[in-house]
């Protein structure tokens, strides 16, 4: 893909970016830009919303219509945009804490409504920007500034959470497979309904240096070794899947989309007023 096309989607005036050298968030951003270009999206009709955190800075670097909102509330803003202008492509960029902690209620209800928004959740198992606190996806036993003797809370499986809440498209991959990140984002954008793409990434600055993954490549290799395709995982016993990252498309179903249903409610209300 010509570099000029990618650059046209970047706000280069905000470079250099704030991410640490070797951060996986840049891989996710590049995959997103390739997906938008591959789908021939119009920058003036593409909206990126984000909350607070390292991952949420991504929206500010993209040359489209962007909303940098409050912590955990980006889906509320994205929902408002989609309801007002259903024809727009709306993408929400979140981190694991932003999505499943303070934003958890918005997340499950966006899944339940099945509103046509693509949620990209960059999961690095920690609050990277605000000091290295544990998040709802921090593995049991892992160090964080709020769990100096190891986390004891059971972590969320974000894909199972999204599936149980009703999302029509759910997929997981890692930054060790950037082409798959691009493919899943493209599939999610094209899905008529709420799409969740969990991209497992890393924060070597906060999480990695205290959990035996100090260098970016340590994390990359860890993801590559731990990744198991969903087709293979289905035939593996639970004990063999311990500590593995099952990657693939978990849900891809047809469900009534929220804005279309809401338009019908408006039509009924307008008809009732005329009677």
The number of distinct helices, counting runs of at least 4 residues, comes to 12
CATH superfamily: Thiamin diphosphate (ThDP)-binding fold, Pyr/PP domains
User: CATH first level: which class?
Assistant: Alpha Beta
Strand content: 15-25%
Unreliable segments (pLDDT under 50, ≥5 consecutive)? none
> Based on helices, strands and strand pairing, what is the structural class?
alpha/beta
- Secondary-structure element series: HHEHEHEHHEEEHEHEHEHHEH
When the domains are counted, the total is 1
Shape: globular
- By DSSP, the count of extended strands is 10
> Mean pLDDT, rounded to whole units?
94
CATH architecture: 3-Layer(aba) Sandwich
Distance between termini? 57 Å
Give a description of the structure.
This protein has 275 residues and is an alpha/beta fold. The chain has a single domain, classed as 3-Layer(aba) Sandwich (Rossmann fold). It has helices at 3-8, 25-38, 58-61, 74-84, 96-100, 104-113, 158-165, 178-190, 216-226, 230-233, 238-241, 258-274, and strands at residues 46-50, 65-68, 89-95, 118-123, 126-127, 133-134, 169-174, 195-200, 227-229, 245-252. Strands 2-1-3-4-8-7-10-9 form an eight-stranded mixed β-sheet, sandwiched between helices. Helix 2 (25-38) crosses helix 8 (178-190) and helix 6 packs across helix 7. The protein starts with a helix and ends with a helix.
Would you spell out the secondary-structure blueprint of this structure?
Elements lengths: L2 H6 L16 H14 L7 E5 L7 H4 L3 E4 L5 H11 L4 E7 H5 L3 H10 L4 E6 L2 E2 L5 E2 L23 H8 L3 E6 L3 H13 L4 E6 L15 H11 E3 H4 L4 H4 L3 E8 L5 H17 L1
Parallel strand pairs: 1-2, 1-3, 3-4, 4-8, 7-8, 9-10
Antiparallel strand pairs: 5-6, 7-10
Helix pairs in contact: 2-8, 6-7
């Amino acid at each position: 893909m010509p570099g000029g096309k990618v650059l046209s989607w970047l706000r280069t005036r905000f470079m250099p970016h704030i991410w640490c050298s070797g951060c996986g968030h840049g891989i996710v951003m590049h995959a997103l830009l390739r997906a938008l270009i591959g789908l021939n999206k119009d920058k003036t009709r593409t909206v990126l919303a984000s909350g607070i955190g390292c991952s949420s800075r991504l929206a500010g670097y993209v040359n489209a219509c962007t909303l940098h909102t409050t912590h955990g509330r980006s889906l509320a803003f994205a929902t408002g945009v989609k309801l007002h202008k259903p024809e727009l492509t709306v993408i929400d960029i979140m981190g694991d804490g932003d999505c499943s902690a303070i934003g958890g209620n918005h997340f499950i209800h966006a899944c339940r409504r099945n509103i046509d928004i693509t949620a990209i959740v960059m999961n690095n198992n920690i609050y990277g920007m605000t000091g290295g606190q544990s998040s709802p996806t921090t593995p049991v036993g892992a160090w964080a500034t709020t769990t100096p003797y190891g986390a004891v809370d059971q972590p969320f499986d974000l894909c199972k959470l999204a599936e149980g809440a009703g999302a029509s498209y759910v997929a997981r991959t890692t930054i060790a497979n950037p082409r798959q990140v691009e493919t899943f984002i493209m599939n999610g954008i094209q899905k008529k309904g709420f799409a969740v793409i969990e991209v497992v990434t890393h924060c070597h600055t906060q999480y990695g240096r205290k959990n035996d993954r100090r260098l970016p490549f340590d994390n990359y290799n860890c993801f590559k070794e731990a990744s198991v395709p969903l087709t293979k995982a289905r035939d593996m016993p639970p004990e063999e899947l311990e500590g593995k990252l099952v990657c693939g498309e978990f849900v891809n179903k047809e469900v009534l989309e929220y804005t279309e249903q809401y338009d019908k409610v408006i039509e009924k209300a307008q008809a009732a007023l005329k009677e």
